[in-house]
Amino acid sequence: MTSAISLNHYLWISGLLFALGIAGIVMRRNLLVIFMALEMNLNAANLALIAFSKFNKLVDGQVLVFFIIAIAAAEVAVGLAIIVALFRRKQTVSVTDLNSMRL
Amino acid sequence: MNIHDTLFWFFSLAMLLCGVLVISSRNPVTSAMFLVALFVFMAGLFVLLEAFFLAAIQILVYAGAVMVLFLFVIMLLNIKAGEHRQFRWLGVIGGLTVAGAFAWELGIILKVPVVALVPGGADFGGGLEAVVKPLFANYMLPFEVTALLLLVAMIGVVLLSKKELK
Known about the structure:
The structure holds two protein chains of two kinds.
Chain A: H1 7-27, H2 31-56, H3 60-90
Chain B: H1 3-24, H2 28-48, H3 52-77, H4 89-109, H5 128-135, H6 140-160
Helix pairs in contact in B: 1-2, 2-3
């Protein structure tokens, strides 16, 4: 029984999730929610890579996703540490109040 | 419509709904919870794509470790959910415009079926062995560099989290 779901379906879902992530980054003011939207973007790219890997029958896409997940974990740790350090200084995580480069 | 297709539509629509709720809910904790659900549905899509190892990693690393980190930081910062509540038309319109433009471009690109540029070999399954074997053959150097990067990130986080940041 063959499936009606093609590569294009997966790319559509991945692209729409990416668009949602971009919308979240532009719309929201809370730094933490912006960071979450960024994670959504990374995940959308992962989905596209895995879909390409499956339909092209090449394992390299999945290896790349493995690296992306490892690096995203490190990125989240560093980013959240920066947000915590920023909050200690400024007592806010709203980007409307964080409008100067000076600490 | 077979079970694979039904599951595809269920997972993807549920995932996109969770994405909308992540960026539209007012409380960061609610956003984080919907993000966990989004990661779980994404892992379901990975299983449908026969990437079983990465689905497990997705649950362990994203839905587990990363989201626990997020929730800890939200608790630590103790942000009051009610502040900055005025609706900002500029931001919302800008965000929807950017997202809409992106989706429009996507529609133009995906009008024709995407075909494989580099025809690969046979089905590889997507289990642990198939994904990890190239890691120790073709991708040895990136693998080691990633290990180094994780160490550097760990030291960086410890330094950033020290009380007096000079």
